[in-house]
Amino acid sequence: MSDRLIDGYDLVIFDLDGVVYLIDEPIPGAVEAIARLHEAGIPVAYATNNASRRAADVAGLLTGMGIPATPDEVLTSAGASAAVLAERLPAGARVLVVGADALRAEIEAVGLTVVSKAEDRPEAVAQGYGPAVGWADLAEASVAIRAGAMWLATNTDKTLPSPRGPLPGNGSLVAALRHALGRDPDVIVGKPAPALFTTAAERVGATKALVVGDRLDTDLEGAVRAGMDGLLVLTGVHTVEDLRAAPAEQRATFVAPDLSGLFAPAVKADDYKA
C-alpha cells in the first residue's frame, strides 16, 4: 500500500504562477513532477487567474517548457470572464476592456464587441491584468462605470510572483478603481470563486481532485469553496507561517516545499517542519 500524497486522487489541478513557473521560467522540479503524473496516467489541469494569456497560449508556453499540455487542460480567468459576459449581455454588446490582448480576444470570441473608450458607451467594463495597463485605461473605465456600465474583474490577486519577488497584480489595479469609485466590482470571476476548479473536474469526470497552489486567498480558499483538498506549495507567495495563521476558509489540507511533495507522504500544516 502506497503512502504518497497523490494516491487516491483522480485529478490534480495546478495553479501556474508560483507553482509551475515564475513568469516564463519553470520552477525547479515542476517539469519532472508533472511528467511523473503523466507517466502514472493521472489527469492534470491548470487553473490560472492571470488573464494575460489565452488557454492555447498557456498550453504552448507549458509545452515549450517541457510540460506537454493542451488548451482543454487550461482554464483561465479571461476565458471564464468572457463566458460570464456572454451570459449577461446581448450578442454584440460593447465591452470596454482594461487588460491584455488575451482578454480582448476571449471577449470577441464569444460575440461581444470590444471598445477602448468610455464615449463608446460600453455596457460593461472587463478589467484584467496586463503589463501595459496605465492611468489612461483606468480613467476610461472609471468614466464608463460611473455612467452605468457593469464592472467585471477577472480576479483580485494583490500580487503576482516573479523571480524578483511579488509584483502588483490585477487586484492592485482593481483597488485603484475601487478607491476612485468608492465601490466594489459588480462581478469577480476568478479564484477564490470555485468555477475554474469545478469546471476542470467536470471536463474529465473526476470525483476526487487535488488543488495545488501557492496563495491562500485564491487557490486554497477556492479549493475549500469547491469542496476539494488543497496542497500549499512554498514556491510562490505564501509561507507555512501564513497558513498557520489563516482563517478556516483559507486553510490548505496539506503543505509541501514544492511539487515533489505530491510523491511523498502527506503532511498537514501543523505537522510541517521547515
Notes on the structure:
With 274 residues, the protein is an alpha/beta fold. It has 2 domains: 11-49 and 191-271, HAD superfamily/HAD-like (Rossmann fold), CATH 3.40.50; 78-188, Rossmann fold, CATH 3.40.50.1000. Helices cover 34% and strands 19% of the residues. The protein has 9 helices and 15 strands. It has helices spanning 30-39, 55-64, 77-88, 101-109, 135-146, 170-181, 195-204, 216-226, 240-245, and strands spanning 11-14, 21-22, 25-26, 44-48, 74-76, 94-98, 113-115, 124-127, 150-153, 159-160, 167-168, 187-188, 209-213, 229-233, 254-256. The strands form 4 sheets. The chain has a 6-stranded parallel sheet with strand order 5-4-1-13-14-15, with helices on both faces. The chain has a 5-stranded parallel sheet with strand order 7-6-8-9-12, sandwiched between helices. Strand 14 (229-233), helix 9 (240-245) and strand 15 (254-256) form a beta-alpha-beta unit.
Give unreliable regions as ranges: none
Category by helix and strand content: alpha/beta
How would a textbook summarize the main sheet? 6 strands, parallel
How many distinct folded domains? 2
Overall mean pLDDT stands at 94
Task: Name the strands of the widest sheet in spatial order.
Answer: 5-4-1-13-14-15
User: What is the CATH homologous superfamily assignment of the largest domain?
Assistant: HAD superfamily/HAD-like
Radius of gyration (Å): 19 Å
Keywords: Hydrolase, Magnesium, Metal-binding
Cofactor: Mg(2+)
Family: Belongs to the HAD-like hydrolase superfamily.
Active site: 15, 17
